[in-house]
Amino acid sequence: MGKFAERMVETAGRKKSRIILALDLPPSTPNLLGEGLNLLSRVSRSLCAVKFNRHLLLPLGLMEGVKRLVDHAHSLGLPAIMDCKLNDIGSTNLAMAEWFFKAGFDALTVSPYVGWKGGLEPVFHLAKKLGRGLLVLAYMSHEGARQTFGKPLLSGGRLKPAYQVFASWASRWGADGVIVGATRPAKIAEVKRILKGRVAIYSPGVGFQGGSVEEAVRKGADYLIVGRSILQAEDPLEAAESLRVRAWRVKPT
Ligand code: XMP
Questions:
Q1: pLDDT in tens, 220-243
Q2: 225 Cα to the center of ligand 1, angstroms
Q3: Which of 23, 57, 117, 232 has its Cβ near the most Cβ atoms within 10 Å?
C-alpha cells in the first residue's frame, strides 16, 4: 500500500469517517477564500479528506488561495486531493503534477484514457518518488459516462468493459485508489472484486447525483466524495456529520 493510501486508512479510522468534502464553492460565493477557510474549519471534524476542483483553482490560483486552503486542510489533519483528472501527454501531465505537488496536494486524480507509455507513466514515477497518491478514474458518476467508461475495450485479446480494464490497470500501476460513481453501485461491487481489496474505491455521486450512501458503502466504496449535499445544506456541519455517521455504520458485504 502506498503512503497516501496508508494515510487515508489512518485518518478515516481515527476520524471514523469515510467522507471527503468536495470543496466546490459556486462562483457567486462572496469572499471565496475566507468562506473556504471558514467552511473547512467548521466541518473538518466529520471528514477524512478534502478534494479540490477547478471551482477554487481558477478564481483563487494554485500557489495563492488554493495553497492557503491546502495548508489549512493539513493544519486540521486532513489530506488534500486535487481532482485534475490528468489526461494529456506525459510531459504536460508531469508539469501539472509537479505544480500540484509543490502546492502541497497529497493526491491527484488521473484519466486512464491516455494510457501508460507517454501518458501516465511519468506521473506515477513522480508520485512514487514523493510518496504522494494517484487515483484513477474507472467509471464516472454522470449519465454520459456509459458512452465511454461503459463501452468495451480490447484488452489481452478480449473485449471487456472499459471500467474493468481501467480497474486492472490501476491495480497494476500501483494506484492508491480507483474512482467509481456511487450512481452505479453494481459497478462498485464488480470493481471491488477486480481490485481484491488491494486498492481503495473512492465514490462521488451520493446525494445530489442520486447515489445512495448505504448502497455505495455496502457494495465496497471505501470513501465517499460529497460536495453539494454538504455545501448547499442549511447546516453544512449537520449534513456532513449525518453523512459521516450513516456511511460509517454500514457493514460492507
Ligand atoms: P457533488 O456536488 O455531486 O460533487 O457531490 C462531486 C464532486 O466530485 C466530482 N466528481 C467526480 N470526480 N470522478 C471524479 O473523479 C467522477 O466520476 C466524478 N463525479 C463527480 C465533481 O466534479 C465534484 O467535484
A1: 999 999 999 999 999 999 999 999
A2: 7
A3: 23
Closest CA to 68 of 86, 41, 94: 41
Alpha helices for 174-212 (secondary structure H): 185-195
The CA 101 to ligand 1 mean position distance, Å, reads 21
Catalytic residues: 85
Indicate if ligand 1 lies below 6 Å from the C-beta of 24.
yes
Burial 199-222 (b: 16+ CB within 10 A, else e): bbbbbbbbbebebbbebbbbbbbb
Mean pLDDT of the chain: 96
β partners of residue 178: 136, 201
On the question of pLDDT at 253 being above 80, the answer is no
Residues with Cβ within 8 Å of 7's Cβ and at least 6 positions away in sequence, in order, are: 79, 106
pLDDT for the residue 156: 85
Q: Which of 225, 226, 231 to mutate to test the pocket of ligand 1 (most atoms within 8 A of CB)?
A: 225
Across the strands, what pairs with 107?
Answer: 81, 133
E strand or H helix at 215, and its extent?
Answer: helix 213-219
Which residues make Cβ contacts (< 8 Å) with residue 95, sequence separation at least 6?
none
